[in-house]
Automatic annotation (TrEMBL):
The keyword Nucleus applies. It comes from the Eukaryota. Keywords: Cell membrane, Coiled coil, Glycoprotein, Membrane, Nucleus, Receptor, Signal, Transmembrane, Transmembrane helix. Enhances Ca(2+)-mediated inhibition of inositol 1,4,5-triphosphate receptor (ITPR) Ca(2+) release. This is Inositol 1,4,5-trisphosphate receptor-interacting protein. Residues 394-467 form the Mab-21-like HhH/H2TH-like domain. InterPro entries: ITPRIP-like, Mab-21_HhH/H2TH-like, MAB21L/cGLR. Gene3D superfamilies: 1.10.1410.40, 3.30.460.90. It comes from Balearica regulorum gibbericeps (East African grey crowned-crane). Residues 38-82 form a coiled coil.
Amino acid sequence: MPVGIFRVCLVVITAIINHPLLFPKENGTVPENTEEIIQKMKEREESLRLEQLRLEQEIADQEATQKALEKAAEVVEESKEEKFRWDMLIELWRQDFQEGNWQDTGGEEDDMAVLGKAFKGLAFPDKAVLASFYEKRILGTTGDMARMREMVEGFADDLLEALRSVCNRDADMEVEDCMGVGSMYENWRVRKPFVCDLIVPFAPPEPYCFRSQTWCSGDSFPPDKQGYGIIKVCRANEDVTGCICDKTKLGEDMLCLLHSQANTTRPSSEMEDLLCFKNTQYLDADQVMKWFQIAVTKAWNRISHKYEFDLSFSLLDSPGALKIKFRSGKSIAFNLTPVVQYENSDVYFISHFPRSSLAADLPSSIHWFLTFAVYERRFIQLVSKTLPANACHVSCLQILSFLHGKQCSLTGPSGLTNYHLKTVMLHLLQARPSQDWAPEKLEARLQDMLKFLEKCLHEKKLYHFFIGNGKVPAELGFPIIFQRAESLNLFRPFVLHRDVYRKTVDTFHEMLRNMSALINEYTVRIP
């Protein structure tokens, strides 16, 4: 009986479960839903493909736009340079028009004839007069220069040693020994007061180092910055070429895997402590001079009790100009200027360079002028070994410097400087054979220097002796990068400053006319 009841119940339950009204077959619509889903997936895939094509087109358009903008920037830069050249030519034409020279069509020969008149009928002093003038007026100053150099060098060494003791070795710049350069150390200074020029190389504290770029290193420098360079303060282990993260703007959600944020960004106060220009890594010449003046003042306060004279900064426009004042009223002036060595050479970036009347606008404080004074001194010493005894090259330069200085004291300053005169001598030293500089040929070589200078003034071209000169003696070890560079015209500012140029030419011609009178006067007056 129980088994029969169980079977009946099982049959009833089975009938109920399979009844279509109670449990309809929902899976009967699955095939229709599957087809709809597949259709929607195809439509979605098509829309995604179209969106991808649209994005690729936008990226291509953006790249084309970027290239167009870069090309336009290059065109604008070229147009600026072209505009600068045209502005310069227009300015020259305007000045010529105002001065009434625009109708002159005589050409170069007429111009040379005008300049050549300075030598026509000129009563040039003979050998005896020049020899007597040199012996009585110039030769006697050599002993004074030697004594002054010895005194200044000894004091400067003591001052720099005291400077090192007052500086923080872990934070301040490291100062090296000073070196003498210029006319006082090349033995051709004639005008008083005598001034010694000393340069002081310095380096940053560890772990930093200097890395420099010059106008001829392939980087873009404007034409008015030829002869200059910039100095970057870097960590010693920093990549020389620099990571791409330093040259491109990474997104906010992107991080350079080579450089962490702590390594790439430095507090601005830290860089300012390293004498950099505000918010940059470039060494600031003004900051360097302020630091150096403060350090020299502290050093002098430490050792002043040892000396019976006073020390002060003598010129506001020359931050490194110092003056020793004795109790007797006498004084000695000298320049102590910090410099940065260019790589492993004796070329130096100088923090302050005297400006002449040819100077245009002052450069920014991150642009440093390069000085080749050490190589110039070495070249003169090297060539002097091959010249006859008592050669006249230095005598010619001294006489020319004396005459030009006297003429400027009578008629006012001109665009010529003693450095231009020395450059003329360096070119002639390289161009002429050694026997031409014998002492008895003083008159002929002096005339050569005057004629060479006149030609350079007429052409407005006097090239730097070392830059672009492939004939520099290999014994000097001169950096090849500057030998291969384009020649640097020291008279380039004459092209823009026509008033200074005409004043300079007039002063030069007046000096030639007064030369015999000046030499005779100073020869007679001095017993």
